[in-house]
Amino acid sequence: MLANSSIGLLVVPVTIYVAGAAEWGAIAVGQSVGSIATIFVALGWGYNGPSLIGRANPVERQTIAIHSLVARAVTAPFITAGAAFVAFLLAPTLPWAAVIACVTVSLGGLGMSWYFVGDGQPQKLFFWDGVPRWAGNLVGVAALWIWHDIYAFLWIQLAGGVLASAISCIVVISQGSRVPRDTWNVRAAFRGVKNQLHAGITVVTATTFASLPTLVIAALAPTAVPVYALGERLVRFALMGITPFLQWVQGWVPRATPDKPVVWKIKWATRVAYVGALPLGLGVALLGPLAGHLLSAGVVELPLALTVAFGVVVATSAVSRVVGMACLLALRADRAVAISAVLGAIVGTPLLFVLVPLQGAVGAASALALAEVIVVVYQIIALRRMLALEQGPATA
User: Fold this and answer.
1) Is 148 helix (H, G, I), strand (E, B) or coil?
2) DSSP secondary-structure letter at 242?
3) What pTM, to 2 d.p., does this model score?
4) Tens digit of pLDDT for each residue in 137-153?
5) What Å distances lie between residue 137 and 7, 132, 149, 159, 272, CA to CA?
6) Which of 73, 77, 124, 202 has the fewest CB neighbours in a 10 Å radius?
7) Are the C-beta atoms of 131 and 4 separated by less than 8 Å?
């Protein structure tokens, strides 16, 4: 993930320099549509999969992996095709580039990175999922720089993403425990999907809302797309930087031991999240304008009001990923996590349509920040209540 983040930092300035800010904005629109599509492709396993794998025995893990693969393979072509059509319509300046970018992100939902996280195998996550993916990005950026062809970059990036998903699936299935042949049954696989209801609600709501600002700006204030897209990219880079810790916590918290029960691990993880989120958010808020200037070579400037809002998003998202994805899911409180996501979207979505016409990118970031605050506050309250049930009046 750190490698992907570093290469992502390279992709932005090269793309803006070679193709231009408007063209890069079109690609960002395609990636936003793909971000929504990939959650439907993943069917919720990318969200609660690590916790499920962390609690399961070897046979159960293999069954979960096979069911997820079968169900996703059936639904992915239809979802990806629909998303590509939407991307084509929303990016008239460079429609086919938006389509390829959309498909690349969409098909990322077929990967098995969540399995490696839950199984506590960071080396496999790095070699079998990370290396092919960032190699495609790196070779694509080199092709873009040499030939100044945005499509060469996009096709190579797509190839790297598909290769990463294919390799990770092969590794998980081939090295897992033996299971009955009927595990591959489509009906059995979709019965497993039914158990993903709360995870599906959470990830669909959260990711759709996170991608919605770019689409609303593209429709209501299109000139602000490059500014918002660059700021949103800084948010992703900041969160990618702490992804190794987040992935480790997701696999570590559910695995109780006699000397370190789940409640102890939750308290430890939340304290680290509370302490670490503040400097991370402040860094994005205060250094964001300079980072945006450097990444875009001065072509796109990020106002301080925008980066402050994004700093709030980063800080609250970091806490939420620990409290919600690692701790509440470890306590099987999927419903609470789903409710928090829905509440954030209910408040944030109408604000987007009010603030974007008035303030453009800053309005969109402000709506997103308020929604994230609501999500994390609800999750913290829910976690405190769950811990009180586990051990009396204890709190997170």
Assistant:
1) coil
2) T
3) 0.70
4) 889 988 888 888 889 99
5) 7, 9, 14, 9, 32
6) 77
7) no
